[in-house]
Amino acid sequence: MGDDSEWMKLPLDQKCEHKLWKARLSGYEEALKIFQKIKDEKSPEWSKFLGLIKKFVTDSNAVVQLKGLEAALVYVENAHVAGKTTGEVVSGVVSKVFNQPKAKAKELGIEICLMYIEIEKGEAVQEELLKGLDSKNPKIVVACIETLRKALSEFGSKIILLKPIIKVLPKLFESREKAIRDEAKLIAVEIYRWIRDALRPPLQNINPVQLKELEEEWVKLPTGAPKPARFLRSQQELEAKLEQQQSAGGDAEGGGDDGDEVPQIDAYELLEAVEILSKLPKDFYDKIEAKKWQERKEALEAVEVLVKNPKLEAGDYADLVKALKKVVGKDTNVMLVALAAKCLTGLAVGLRKKFGQYAGHVVPTILEKFKEKKPQVVQALQEAIDAIFLTTTLQNISEDVLAVMDNKNPTIKQQTSLFIARSFRHCTASTLPKSLLKPFCAALLKHINDSAPEVRDAAFEALGTALKVVGEKAVNPFLADVDKLKLDKIKECSEKVELVHGKKAGLAADKKDFKPVPGRAAASGAAGDKDTKDTSAPKAGPLKKAPAAKPGGPPKKGKPAAQGGTGGAGTKSKKAVEAKEVVEPELSIEVCEEKASAVLPATCIQLLDSSNWKERLACMEEFQKAVELMDRTEMPCQALVRMLAKKPGWKETNFQVMQMKLHIVALIAQKGNFSKTSAQIVLDGLVDKIGDVKCGNNAKEAMTAIAEACVLPWTAEQVMSMAFSQKNPKNQSETLNWLSNAIKEFGFSGLNVKAFISNVKTALAATNPAVRTSAITLLGVMYLYVGPSLRMFFEDEKPALLSQIDAEFEKMQGQNPPAPTRGVSKHSASGTDEGEDGDEPDDGGNDAVDLLPRTEISDKITSELVSKIGDKNWKIRKEGLDEVAAIINEAKFIQPNIGELPTALKGRLNDSNKILVQQTLTILQQLAVAMGPNIKQHVKNLGIPIITVLGDSKNNVRSAALATVNAWAEQTGMKEWLEGEDLSEELKKENPFLRQELLGWLAEKLPTLRSTPTDLTLCVPHLYSCLEDRNGDVRKKAQDALPFFMMHLGYEKMAKATGKLKPTSKDQVLAMLEKAKANMPAKPTAPAKATPKPAGGSAPARSQPASAPVEDSVSGTVDSRPDPKKAKALGVSSKTKTAQGKKVPSKTSLKEDEDKSGPIFIVVPNGKEQRMKDEKGLKVLKWNFTTPRDEYIEQLKTQMSSCVAKWLQDEMFHSDFQHHNKALAVMVDHLESEKEGVIGCLDLILKWVTLRFFDTNTSVLMKTLEYLKLLFTLLSDEEYHLTENEASSFIPYLILKVGEPKDVIRKDVRAILNRMCLVYPASKMFPFIMEGTKSKNSKQRAECLEELGCLVESYGMNVCQPTPGKALKEIAIHIGDRDNAVRNAALNTIVTVYNVYGDQVFKLIGALSEKDMSMLEERIKRSAKRPSAAPVKQVEEKPQRTQSISSNTNMLRKGPAEDMSSKLNQARSMSGHPETAQMVRREFQLDLDEIENDNGTVRCEMPELVQHKLDDIFEPVLIPEPKIRAVSPHFDDMHSNTASTINFIISQVASGDINTSIQALTQIDEVLRQEDKAEAMSGHIDQFLIATFMQLRLIYNTHMADEKLEKDEIIKLYSCIIGNMISLFQIESLAREASTGVLKDLMHGLITLMLDSRIEDLEEGQQVVRSVNLLVVKVLEKSDQTNILSALLVLLQDSLLATASSPKFSELVMKCLWRMVRLLPDTINSINLDRILLDIHIFMKVFPKEKLKQCKSEFPIRTLKTLLHTLCKLKGPKILDHLTMIDNKNESELEAHLCRMMKHSMDQTGSKSDKETEKGASRMDEKSSKAKVNDFLAEIFKKIGSKENTKEGLAELYEYKKKYSDADIEPFLKNSSQFFQSYVERGLRVIEMEREGKGRLPTSAGNTNGEEVGPSVYLERLKILRQRCGLDNTKQDERPPLTSLLSKPAVPTVASSTDMLHSKLSQLRESREQQQHSDLDSSQSHSSGPVTSSSSTANIDDLKKRLERIKSSRK
Asked: Could you tell me the pTM of the whole model?
């Protein structure tokens, strides 16, 4: 007893697990009591027992087990958590209860199983029971079968899945145990009760005795449909209702439902699919081609045996079908034809829908084979084609069938008609729409008149069947011309027809029976397409509209009133509409007169043809009154119009009478029942008067009235043909105008596009421009309705005309066609015709495609072409594909029959060569457009394989495939894709790419559909497996698609489908379903009816009135997505659901909005520092991963929670990408306002951004990059520097994105990298980018290498980390890369380094392979030859260095700058000159990184920069006075200091800070204004001008756009710049130093400034522009004339080339040139003509005369001619002497032009001197042969001798000597006096000094830096100075200077000022130690007087004092 007391004290759970059976028994009893007491099924008590229930049922003690089972049963029945125990408990019951001898235990076990089924766990229970069937213990097997049988009996076949049970039945029947066999027999009988004969095929192979027994049992079963006796919990309410109904005596609706469900089970579904392709005999394909028929027969018999399997595994049967088709079509042995047909039948039956893709190939062959007479062959063919029909749709094979209908062979005609009749039986009203009926009826009507009686009978049968299926109403319009006898015959046949679906045909799709469903008409009745108006039935009463079918299928119509029982009014109204179009017989004139006299006053008829116009007018007035008073029914329209047409009729001469007459026609048409007969009487006259000035409008009114009475399509066709049969162009153009207007008023429905197009083409070819214009306007209106396909009709028109048409289409783009205002059925009661109008999808557009003339291309798809496409050699395959593309291109629109092409193309979709795959996809896109909607029939055999390509590993192939699928879906609609198992088979494949692309596509398409085929359910299991796919992208896409599947299938179906999942998966999926249910969009519905809507083609969404329910009006129809702007205009709030149907969260309460008002980033003091410490101390994960794992994301969330607003964080970490976009938008908005917060959270923001880099959604990525650009701009403005932690957790991930396939993304990333150099040192960026070059992605490698090149170019070799040597070796490795782009990038980078570092590069690179080295050397050579291109080009080649801010990048904004940095980058990167980097002392070195970051305040205060060097500035003062003109040895040093100071000040001019810039300008201005000091600027002019126009550019792009900047400051800066310039250009000696490139850029900047409209808006803007004007004039007058003229020519050339440049800009450049031309007579002698002519030559080469003439303005060509003409006039024939610098004169027309001008001027002036000149010219032309040289020189000397021309003569002699250096002028000087000789020599010397002094053509060897060299005068002086210092003059670098390079003819372009800047910058970097002696070369003083040390000393002194002043003031 003591033991007992021990366990009795234990708690219940321990009792239940006690080892003593008594304790357990007590525990179970206690538990049972507790279970019975707990009333709440959700009580937490239940959960305590979760782990114990299995023990209850598996107890080892039989007595205790019974109690346990009782408790378990109560638990399962009442606990809400019981479902979790299903698996373990049922498996316990099976293994431990069903083997018990006690019947009670077994009963309880079965009861527990059934209870689990009741609580919705049927699948799990069934799974365990089926496992139990494999047990070795027969007791367990028997009990399991019994349980399954009871479950089926009680719950029905809906809950218990029969397929797995039927699968094991045969095995159970073979068991040795009789008990098992008996139980199997019982369950077989139970199953038969539910599915009837579907059970027979699976059991056909069991023991015949058993089968017989079964048959006997089956017969005994009652025939009524069984009903479940027990319901699931979720159905229990239904059960209660059922009982109520039964007690009320009504039949249960639920039962009815179940009755409906019974035939759902299809025997086919219960069968196992057999795979037969692998079982085909190995030699099958050889045998089938064998010559002996016996061998072919063997092959076919082998197939026949295989295809007898009732269900076949899906696979690629294309080859097999092709072989069988060949036998059917071509085999001579009819027995084999029959055998092959049987095989095809077997395949079709076994594969069902999966055979559909082959149907199109086989049907035509079988139909044509019906010519065979043998009955067994005919029967086999009939069976085959019937079986094949069931695998596809009538729509898909209609083309093939109709093509055979015209065959001459009567047997073929007969069999085809019979086949059509049989096919029709399987159709319903919805699957046999009018668009299909129409062509079939037309073909069959021909057959009912055939001579062969069997053909007639077959046609009658087919028509009769159609009549039965769709009803008389739909067929009658096609039978209008059939006589009564034949009509009766058709009706008779119709009565005999038995339909497959019974009479419920119409509702097969819509299981709604014929009960009128309240609020919506059941979909049935006649389905129609464009002609709906005539035939389809109206809606019953004002019901809500049935949803239109999607574009692919016909729109569902309202059901016929007759069947609906309601809608009488609708019927009447419809009759009225039809009555309108009754054709009236033509009446004779007598009858008309009689009828007219009955309704018109007698006088009226008498005066009709009076000769007095006033009488006629009076008569018309009476006529009009009479018509106005007449009643519609009494008005004899035809008689009245006949009267009006009576003599003089339409030849009426008086316009007043005529106007009245036309007005009366309009009245009659409006008021009477106006028929087409009446219309024909008057239309001719109306068209004749339409062009009349006075009567035209009345004629148009009348025509519009007639169009309303007789429908527009007919009227328009009549009117057009009449107008174009006349010759009067006015009538033609007005007719076209009327039609354009009419289409807008009536809509487009029913118009025959084809007929119009021929007329429009005639009009387009008309000579009269008005006709052409009207035609183009009409096309524009048609375009609104038809869309882009309209253009295809006009592709062969002349380009000029085509461009006009395109321009008209362009205007119409984006516009919606107006809602029709006329043609609305005015006779019908309001809104009854609604159904037709609304449901008609915008069919103008659809019809247009149907009307296109299509070409038959099947004959071009030859077997050779097909074999080419399948060739082993890829090149030949490519040729084949090219041919196909050419065939399709040429045909434009094709018929659906394309022979063997689908099979061939399908093979190419899995080609190993991806290029061919892409080409095939492109061809398939073409094919879709060319074939239009008919492409439907190829969806199965070609469309589905395209979907397979979505699984390709290459992104570009996938995107091509997606584009192709979309192009197809656009033509076919979605129904074809979703039907059958094909899509689900694709989704089943475990390919992550395929799954994510396909799900993404479905998520995009499903929301737009009204309804989907039931086959969509087949995709659901695979969708669920995608939700748990190991690939994150697949999971995400599956989640995105979930709501759209649910939208079509409903939550219940989707939830039910989770039953087959594992318990863990199921819970997850159900949770997702719940979530998706909340986000589930509503199905798009047809807009609700508000007011009667206009008919015609306008889409319902467009004519939706404002009062319509919001959601409907926005969702619109599928065909016409409403544009959101429209929706708004209609009073629809933009927040409502769009076509996607997204729900607006209803929760957005005020509270939420308030939450969003605060700051988004919270500043946490030292937050960032703490995070960095944590990361260093390894307290948190270091941000380093290949793909982000969950723990990283969670960590980031946690870190963000303290410093990011909660609502923003939710958006940032949302699973839906659209929320990320929202978050980014918010972050962009708050960027400026929360600078501190952004910087405080920067590390977190950058980390979050790296997560976005791993998203696949492009829109998020683009937004992210946009944000980053703004962020880094902000950081650089704030002078922030990235920390190491921030950089290392962000830069590597950013660099990953530089390898993106999309160009636009790569550009953005490069722009961001570029901006990052402003907040993170370039030298530290370098290693990160270097790491990026090791990527596997070749694009990334190439881009990183390019970026490295740009860094080196911008920042010099110091950026190369760890050392230049190591870095270069790494880069050089990539020269041998297998990817071309990478090789090029590596080579370019090393060439860039070479340009900066020279030959030392080779040392650094180290050993390279021979091949790589030769590539490198070749590239270096090439880069040396390449001319330094004009700056604009440079920028275009490197767009990633700058980020365009405005699309209108004109020339000034060579890629507008974000700030100075990128400009400096450009300046550096654009220098094409290799320079040795020498070091300047740190204080004087231009710190480029500093200058770049100089956006705000000046970082380095000016005095500090110079203060240490004040002693150096004093140094020259200590020099002993140079009495003996000896130069101090420190002269160089001193000069360097002055230069450095000026350099520094100039560098400040380009500062991003306005004040710094103004200060620098003020200092320079001071120097310029004092004549004695201005000299110091010499040598710095170019540098100063560059800095100035860079500042101009900065103001233009950055400051002007910056709204925070005071515009007064900008004006102040502008006035400083302009003032400085004016001072500079007043000092001629300095002005002349400006080089061509700099002048060009300066003029560019000034002209852009003059054109800047923003300036004019400022207060003092006008003053600025006036000052600029003045400055430009100064620049033109004072600069070196050659340089400025050259600069203007190049600027004009560039501005004409640049598309972005405004015409105004070019115009101003030309005005400057005209001014220069006016100055020419004064300046001609100081101009280097050769160089100017070289520039003109280059200009004429770039712009030949033809190209210039194409310019919009004629000014360029006139400017050029004026310039040349002036030069010719001033120089005469000698101008031809100045072509010396042009290498190849034939490249332009310059020489020829000059010769023409010379000749012309000679012809005009006959004076002697001109003739002499002409001689001179011709001599020049003959290249001055020796004999004539003397005459020429004599002439020159004659000029020198004469007083007037002496200067000109000397200049000519100088030029001559220079050109012909070996010419001997001695003989001419010999005879002259000594004075004359010395005069000539002195004159030549002066000229030489003058010309060379201007530095235009320096002839000296260059200097160290390739910097522009000063004039030779100073070089001479330098030489003297060097000699005095004892320096060597001979050894100088042989590289020619920049300007001499420029003046060589080989270099056509003008060096940009940026080149100069580059050389200046490098010059500043040179160290003075290395430069003690050579610095004078590079920083040459260009002043005109000889520089003596004393004057320099004075300068230095002055500067020193000024600097002191500045310093003290700054303090």
From this structure: 0.38
